[in-house]
Amino acid sequence: MNIKLHTPKSMKMGSGMASMKQFLLSLFATSVSIALTFGTAAIIDYNAKQKSKRQIVMMVMYDMYNSLQSIEKADSTIHQAMDVQRQIAEDTTLFEQLRYQLIARLLPRAEYTETTEHIFSSSIETINTVGNVLFTENVAAFYQNRQIYKTMVCDSVLNEISQIVPFSTLKGTLDFNYMVYALTSSDILKDLQRLYAQCQQMMEVTDEDIEAYRKEREQIDKGMAEGDEAADSLINEIMQLQMIIDESKAKLKLE
User: Is residue 215 within 8 Å of residue 165, measured between CB atoms?
Assistant: First the structure.
């Protein structure tokens, strides 16, 4: 008697391989899905950090740029004052005509705010976002030298002038020692320019980037100024209304 055995479908040749293949494909698809999910999140996070980093860098570089512009102007002012002093020394009849330039126009001033410096220096999170130690050190050195310039050059010139009133006489005008301040100014300015240039190179910030950022900031500032003007106009309107009310009350002689 011949007995014919029936092999279950699950045991047939190739069915195990097919199941394994299906399992591996499913595993692969799941792995790809997970990788894409976390990978996309990582890319979004990375891009957000890079954007924040760029914004902080541009804010700081723009502040450094403005400070440098102001200090370069102060340095130029000292040289102009020395030139006026030379003209008076060569022709003393020019004393009365030119000495007022030294008093009113040719006083070196370093004009800047410390808002950005405080934001950058006081937050470790901000520094970590930038993530460049050398850039942070250069910025700190720039801000330190900026303060030194203001103290040793601008403030010192103004203090000396206010104490000895040198430009009231010809001798005092010619004796005023601009050379010391000019040399100090030139020395500190070179350091500031070097630090700024290094920061530009490290963070890949071009002059065109600074100019574009400046225009963007000007648009924002313009919008804020217009808002302030509108607020001032509203306040003036309220004040005028109150004046009219007060005048009417005075005419009615109400107690």
Answer: no
Closest CA to 82 of 174, 155, 152: 174
Give the H/E segment covering residue 87: helix 15-90
Residue whose pair of structure tokens reads 């003007």 in the numeric block: 229
Task: State the burial class of residue 157 (Cβ atoms within 10 Å of its Cβ: 0-12, 13-18, 19+).
Answer: buried
Region of 189 (left: φ > 0; alpha: ψ -120 to 50; beta: rest) is alpha
pLDDT tier at 232, thresholds 50, 70, 90: low
User: Closest by alpha carbon to 145, among 67, 214, 213?
Assistant: 67
Question: Is-above-0.85 flag for pTM?
Answer: no
Overall average pLDDT of the 45-59 stretch: 81
